[in-house]
Amino acid sequence: MFMNRLKYLIVTLILIFLAIGAVVLxxxxxxxADNTTAVVQEMKSLNRWETASFTIExxxxxxxxxxxxxQFLFGNRILLVAHGEVIAxxxxxxxxxxxxxxxxxxxTITLSSPVILSSSIDNSKTEVYDRNQGLxxxxxxxxxxxxxxxxxSTIKAAACQEGILNNASxxxxxxxxxxxxxxxxxxxxxxxxxxHC
Length: 197
Known about the structure:
This protein is α+β, with helices and mostly antiparallel strands. The chain has helices at about 1-45, 70-75, 140-160, 165-180; strands at about 50-65, 75-90, 100-105, 105-110, 115-120, 125-135, 185-190.
């Protein structure tokens, strides 16, 4: 009788531990499956290839102009140093098998023109150095917003002037040539039209 109760108790404890283990295992499996699904969705939505990045600092001085008296009463100026990043590369959403031609050990790839993929201001590194506001001017937060918008377009223009699209093309050719030569292609041609900002 005692042995039967002991066996029953041991079997019950084993079943409880198995049930707890199954619940923990199922919970961990669910979390892992959710994370995997999120990563796959993110990878599917990317259709761009970043090949050049410029980090630029630009001094922005904007606001009203006038003589000392006008500025004292009605002036509204801001001086800030904007820190931004411009990324250039290729939109691969229209790239297809028709853009690749292989003949023996020769390959020709035609990409679209490089484009500016993003231009952003890093607010943590952007600093306001001077803010002057006349006595009769209501406080205007929009001036800082306008200065940041001006900074973003100025930073993009500076990256274009410094040749970011040419860098993007050169980097793409270099990277593709390196990759394709590892597949034993001996004659590699990469056609990239000139990009325009």
